[in-house]
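Entry for pyridoxal-5'-phosphate complex. Fields follow.
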Amino acid sequence: MNDLASIAYFSMEVALEEGMPTYSGGLGVLAGDTIRAAADLRVPMLAMTLLHRKGYFYQRLDPNGSQIGEPVAWVVEDFVREMTPRVSVAIEGRTVELRCWRYETRGAGGHIVLVYFLDADLPENSDWDRTLTDYLYGGDQRYRLCQEVVLGIGGVRMLRALGHQNVRRFHMNESHSSLLTLELLIEETEKAGKRSITIDDIVAVKKRCIFTTHTPVPAGHEKFPIALVRSVLGHEELLAEMKNLICCGDIFHLTFLGLNLSDYVNGVAKKHGEISRLMFSGYNIDAITNGVHAATWASGSFQELYDRYVSGWKQDNFSLRYALSIPKQEIWDAHMQAKRQFIRYVNRQTNAGMDFDVLTLGFARRAATYKRGDLLFQDTLRLKRIASKAGPFQVVYAGKAHPRDEDGKELIRRIFQSKEALKPDIKVAYLENYDLEIGKMITSGVDVWLNTPQPPLEASGTSGMKAALNGVPSLSILDGWWIEGCIEGVTGWAIGENGTGEAPRSDRSEDARWLYDKLENVVIPFFYRDRERFIDVMVHCIALNGSFFNTHRMIQQYVLKAYL
Ligand SMILES: *Cc1c(COP(=O)(O)O)cnc(C)c1O
């Protein structure tokens, strides 16, 4: 089995199951879905990440919507098995010992992809070093950089110690792991018995590396003062030699390291590829649009339906195109089953008193300001008028703000204020502690999926793809994947001008007006007064978007464009 593991996938976060808090959001969910698809399609892959003993955080919300974060309590041994090899990395001149834990992801045909979780919590390490694999995206810059040393450098060493000698490709899922290139460079120079790196070493490392960039948001591109990097990493001479690879002046830029040392670089949707080429001109940046793992994200009722009508869909997501032949009534019944289950959950959790038969909108993602979760509430008077004239609707929210993102936390409070202001005309609920399980329930249990990011900042977005798999159409700003996935009135609806294939220039109140117009004149009337046509849209969500925006198609593109 070890011999088959020729692609090593490195990611700071990986979402494997609800009980493991080793992810924060889209990046980790994508990593998990990628690994599951690789297992289904027998792609020889293994994955490396950190254990995150305290997780990202457990979210509670007080009655004002103020977020309280707690460390997540979880029993590591219930999920992963300890491995025997130990490796060490040098951090600030200290030796930090690492062990790792193993998780097995079994694909639809039984093939296993191994995921390794690095762990610094060993008695040999200092108290502070022991915490290095505790908090995902926690701490200050120094803590983050030390974690990145553990992942990139410790990860490569651990692979060697585990006996994975045949790794041909190193795939960096975002730049948190790009220090792995440094370790590969050192390996090259040592192999040749040299003291300094040469062009040949760079070429040799580059051939093996693949880098996927995930966001056009500048804060998503990590950089560190070079003085900090020198103090954490040592390697003064190497860093001096690599000056041109790590970017500019006194700044160490992890994204540039990834860009400069990878043979294949991609963004995560066509539009994001374009934006990335503008941000990093001079680099050859391709695009592979993200997907979701169909067997993970289809609700129980849709799984049953697909099992009956689309044989082999779990091994071959493309066959979801045959959803076109599923009787419409059965699509609707499967949807209502998921919806009733979800609405019951919402009512139990929040006492919102939601109604099974009322049009339900869903919105869940990280509470970052560019995602504009409160765009729907731009004009609450108009919103109330729409509900009373066009037809009633209710809205369910979920999402965590990063513990240091004060604006994101304020966004959640604003949604809570709107929730109060809209009572009793429009019911709004906010679910605490958004995780994989809630993600699955909300994307399958609402009638329409809402997404309102500020273009062009949504690199891809994936929750609308989960919704599509469950026959839930999107009402979304044309950005990220939706530019590719939206066929107006066929797979859902655009907020903004239709059919140009371009993200429109964005103006907040104008976007809100578009949203209200679509809701009032198209979505609500469709839902209540032309149910047949509404179900037609649901069917096309599955057949056109579910069959394409999945990680089976995505991983095949990675294999053809990057891994082979
Ligand atoms: C799918 C998912 C995300 C990512 O959603 P985006 O639409 O890509 O922002 C984040 N968190 C959880 C729990 C998810 O299930």
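NOTE: Residues 328-350 form the longest helix (23 residues).
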